[in-house]
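A further point concerns the way the authors explain their paired sequence and structure data. Each protein is reduced to its one-letter sequence and a matching series of backbone shape codes. An entry of this sort, consisting of the sequence and the corresponding backbone structure tokens, reads as follows:
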Amino acid sequence: MGRTPPHPEVSQFDLQQVLEALVDPVRRSIVTQLDAAGEDIKCGDFDIPVSKSTATHHFNVLREAGLIRQYYVGTSRMNTLRRADMEEAFPGLLDALTRAR
């Protein structure tokens, strides 16, 4: 559990932070890929046109905003979309985003 990065609680979600996270096309792509997959995805398995260090930054922004949850399976950092939590905090936001793809 010590390797699991911190995640905000739903009560800590901030709409401004979420919207700032989603303004970047790479981060929107990560969110839509997670939504389309319907399952958790390893960091290295996303189709994003950035370096590993830049990808790490994008994942951190999404995690800190509450959009994704990250955890380890062996040496792989897995990502899951926090759809239910986002729906609780901001109803319809992710639906609007994923419909736009």
The domain at 10-90 is CATH 1.10.10.10 (Arc Repressor Mutant, subunit A).
